Amino acid sequence: MKRKSIYAILLGTALMASCKKSFIDRPALDATTLGNYYNTAEEVRSLTSTLYGLPWSGYENRAMDAIGDVMAGNEYTGGSDDPPFLNFSFASTSVRIADAWKVFYKIGGWTSAYIQALEQKKVEGGNASFIDPAIAECHFLRGTVYFYIARAWGDAPIVTDPGATALSGNFNIPRYYQADVLRFALEELQMAEAGLPETDVPGRVTKYSAKGMMAKLYLYTKDYENAKIKANEVINSGKYDLVSDYAGMFNSSANNNNIESLFSIQHQLTGNPWGSGNQKNPDRGPPSNLQTSEASMWELYTPSMDILNAYESGDTRRKGSVMEHGWSKPEWKPTNSSAAYNAFMANGYKYDTIQAVGEGGEKNSTHSNIAKYVVGPGKSFGGETVLGMNTGINTMMLRYADVLLIYAEAVLGTQGSTSDASALSAFNKVRTRAGLLSKESITLDDVMHERRVEFAFEGDYWFDIQRQGFAKAKQIIEAQNRGTYTYEQHVTFSEQYMYLPIPAGEILQDPELSKEPVHYY
């Protein structure tokens, strides 16, 4: 059986299973497949490569924005599905919440099935030298998604054998306490750390990817000592560094799998790219003056007024993250049917809020657009290949900058401030790249500010707000301007929105999910 056929079977089975309970989604891996396949390193790595791209689509595209940045006050949005995250009125029927749930439990189900299949292959005589690292890859992905599940929903189901669950017919799966879900995620990452290689080809996770994700989890649980240890192990490895061109990480696929990336969702534009391409370009790009015959743009998400006010003067990350009046990209040369537009863009793309719309101007609700993951108007217009909604830029989920700031915060711990040399060194590396002056002492507010502007529009700020507790979250959110350029708006935040509700459709199929959580361990 050819590899292409194997992938088609796995994909088709997973898609059919998605009509059932999301948390028992799994591919079919039967004895025939095990007997005839996974006999070479190439075949095994072909299996695990399916975990890096397509399965993430439903979360990466829109749910990640709605939950991580709209809810956090970094993004303004319109339409019908996303405004409830702006004003905290979302419900268990939200399509964004359902999409995130399905993605995380799909990846959890696939990794569980792959682990079982590969373990069985070893029993049948498979080569452990390339099977064991593949199993460790699965543990990394399973640990990562359960960490995300614990952050998003708090108490949640844990399923390690979706096939047995499906065959048993007993779908009364309970929620487990968040602490147990986090412990499960940590144990998965520890197994990944033990089994992954120190180095691999670009794009594949390594032992240090696991260490970095563990550091992030430890920080979330306020285990500062272990967060510091794991972050320091990544720092001392010498395998990672900050990319000097901050903007370049996010506007060109030529910089995919760079020296700053510890874990990225992998994208490609071969054949029909639906689901395998990055679709942030249209959701963020300015339609009035950057849409072309090759690149779709409709700016579903734009920078909020609050994030625009958060940048310090001189912070170069602002231009790398946000398009505003005066922002330019000379190598992009978009054209359309308007002579006035073509004349305006003759020397390259310009973002302008004064020029008339239709003649090169752009005037949305916040007079700005997100620059991150917008790769431009397409190859014929001076950019890279864009196929409608799809681009080939990877989405970075864990960067070295995160590890540096995790280390600084872990050293700070519960202190009011710190002048520790190692913490300041890590913290100021991030600021120096941004063109800002170093600090001689840092507080938690300093770290959180730095994290906000460093990772703006990367789906993470909500969890930085959340992990500070309800009182601080309420203070932060209610102080934010969540309105537009002409209308300032503030919201009231209540504790029920600290975690997402479990999707209504899941509770309908499994009423146990509406009950109080129980212990997993």
List the helices and strands and how they pair.
Elements: H1 3-17, H2 31-36, H3 41-49, H4 57-70, E1 75-77, H5 83-87, H6 95-123, H7 128-153, H8 162-168, H9 178-195, H10 207-220, H11 224-237, H12 248-251, E2 261-265, H13 280-284, H14 287-290, E3 301-303, H15 305-308, H16 317-321, E4 322-323, E5 328-329, H17 339-344, E6 349-350, E7 369-370, E8 395-399, H18 400-412, H19 421-433, H20 444-454, H21 461-466, H22 470-479, H23 504-509
Antiparallel strand pairs: 1-3, 2-8, 4-7, 5-6
Helix pairs in contact: 3-7, 4-6, 6-7, 7-9, 9-10, 10-11, 10-18, 11-18, 18-19, 18-20
Describe the structure.
The protein is mainly alpha-helical and 521 residues long. Among the domains are: 3-196 and 503-514, Serine Threonine Protein Phosphatase 5, Tetratricopeptide repeat; 269-376, no CATH class. Helix content is 47%, strand content 5%. The chain has helices at 3-17, 31-36, 41-49, 57-70, 83-87, 95-123, 128-153, 162-168, 178-195, 207-220, 224-237, 248-251, 280-284, 287-290, 305-308, 317-321, 339-344, 400-412, 421-433, 444-454, 461-466, 470-479, 504-509; strands spanning 75-77, 261-265, 301-303, 322-323, 328-329, 349-350, 369-370, 395-399. The strands form 4 sheets. A two-stranded antiparallel sheet has the order 1-3. The protein has a two-stranded antiparallel ribbon with strand order 2-8.
